Amino acid sequence: MKLQNTKIERDTLFSMTFMETQLKKIFLSQPELADKLLTPKELTKYISKLIYLGGTLPKNMQKKMSEFTDDIFTTTELSYNSSLSVLAERLALNANDPQALSTMAAEYENQKAEHYLLTNHDISIGRMLRYMPAHWHTNDYFEIYYCFSGDCPIHFVEETISMKPGTVLIIAPHVLHASPCYADDRVLFYYMVRADTFDKVFWNQLPSENLMASFFHQALGHEKHASYLQFETGVDDDIELLLFRLCDEFYHPKTYSIQMLNALMSEFFILLLRRYEDTAKLPRTDDFYWKQEFSAIFSYIQSHYHDKTLSEIAAYFHYSERQITRIVYNCTGNNYSQLVLKLRMEKAAGLLKQNVCIDTVSYAVGYSTTSSFYRAFTRYFHCTPVEYREGRHSDPGQPT
What's the pTM? Predict the structure, then answer.
């Protein structure tokens, strides 16, 4: 990987810190923690014990322990969350301070952007601290995990995602999850993005007629046990370089760093969607079951609905027409012809708004004659293409 554009080297990113070495010794002395996900209260008690143990070390070791927050790769909540820093100081004086313990537990349970993102920043970045016990928590911001090394599981209430190098996981706000990091070779970064910023840098990259966009909204647009999008990049050098550049900009801020962070994150999402949209994995719900191959199927339909028949699409994926039809209906609630009509009409509407001539629009969306396109468009939108372009239209109706 070429990292000449950043100050961050891979060896520095991967190396164990002094703090993590100490955490490892303590963690391994309590084997019951390996298979346990802590509650916020349990994590708070654990941290108060760590603070107490740090105070009992020799003076030279105490100084070294206190310096861990200066290392950019051990950035944890305590290093940029002023509320938690104050609470940690109180616990250093009294490890059993009930009010401090209660307040810290509440902070860990529902992590808020105002406390976990740097002031005036839309995006903040951290690395998962190895051998710190994982705990259940929610965020009020979007969280993008990227696995640089090792096997990094992310736990949800009803399922666990196994992240490997190159895995990208986008988690929606208010989703309960936990992320253990219990091995020397595990390097898991998290990129925290305010919800309104995520709208700008992710949703705005998706064209309105994009079929996968509707599934992404379904996965991230409302609260459930697991609201996430998972992409497998297979360790793409360009993807990793963008993520390194984000880290470099965050930890070595310069003029316009906030704007540059947003621009780099937007570029990251565009590249991710361009190259890996058809690897997307969506969560399973009571009424929605997404299989890995569906991403490729719908991406192919999106690209070829205007020039491939149902039988050709089925043959391409070695499915029967009946299987493709059932997949389409189960995932969209429409039959195949209704889905294709929707894609054609939304694409046509976008082209008309760009003042593309009607004959060109007709051909672009797969109609053999302009008159057949004209009839279909008028039936769908309850107005003619010309009227639509002039803004004289209502909501689209259902095909007859």
Answer: 0.80
